[in-house]
Amino acid sequence: MPNSYPKFDSSTYNHLATFSYRSKAVYLAAMLGIILLLVSLPLVRMSVSAQAPGMLRPLAEKTEVRPLVAGTITKLLVRENQQVQAGDTLLLLQSGAMQSQLALNARQQAEHAAFVQDLAWLVQHMAAPAGGLRTPLYGQQAAQYQTQLQQFRNQLQKSSRDVATSQELFRDKVIARVELEDKTFAHRKRLDEARVLTETQRSQWQAELASHRAALAELRGQQQQLGLERRLYCLRAPVTGTVQQLAGKYVGSYVQSGELLGTLSPDGDLLAECYVSPKDIGFMRVGMPARFQVDAFDYNQWGLVEGRITDVSRDFVLVNNEPVFKVRCQLSRAFLQLDNGYRGTLRKSMTVHARFLLARRTLWQLLFDRADNWLNPTQDGVS
């Protein structure tokens, strides 16, 4: 049946009769929500973060175990994955040449020390002690000196008697003054010769004493040097850590100077070394907070570890043929903990994912950045 009132089909009354009040309320609520969303865009702020993979490692670098001298292993005191303390002996090397040099040095020191002792006594007393001297050389020299000195003494006694006799004869006017003066001159000459003999012998012994003392000091210096070199044959742990990657060496094996025998992974506080891509490195700065998700622990149960950037590398390195920058971070703790109190200890070489808080931006700024990315996509090449 045709509509009797066609002019009312497009009227307000017909529209209101067609659409219910419920549809109107939904429409108004949607519009109100859109308006509130638009108003909140410049007001609501969100944290913008960058993510980077990384690994836990000690503060110190791994230390390579390399001997500074060549030799044969006589003792091997460590095994793979063994914990050692700083100063612990790792292995001992043996060298026949070093032992020979030390033995020769000891013999030479003993010889020169005996010389010094004998000469010091002779310079002071000019005669051998009652028990004799330690060395045959200076014992013979001392005996020879005493023999010569005794000869001069005998000659002095004879010349002294000759002078006394000549004086009596001169007083009795039996001999002339010239003859008395000759006897007196001969006596004084014997006295001078005895004094010269003593002074010459003392000077000779003093010179030899100084020479032997200098030689002894040099030998002691060589002994100290040999002692330092001998310590190189005892390979010790420079730091506390774990022995890793031991070479296949056994007792009796010969090692070359500088040969790699293993590595020592040091203990101590852990840090997170993260590999940040070049597009994010510009935001990194020392002191920036970070949070770390440890891959070995489910972060939904164990949570995250807080940290802070302590060092940002100035140049890139290649990791898996990709340029990255190393960023080192200090951790606030070395464990994760469940709600029941059970702790999971963080260990070296555990992999992590770091989240660096770059800035807090409004929803409007984020929406604008996303729209800019859509409108200006990055081009891989030039068409």
UniProtKB/TrEMBL annotation:
The keyword Transmembrane helix applies. The chain crosses the membrane at residues 25-44. It comes from the Bacteria. Keywords: Membrane, Transmembrane, Transmembrane helix. Residues 270-355 form the AprE-like beta-barrel domain. PANTHER family: EXPORTED PROTEIN, MEMBRANE FUSION SUBUNIT OF EMRAB-TOLC MULTIDRUG EFFLUX PUMP. This is HlyD family efflux transporter periplasmic adaptor subunit.
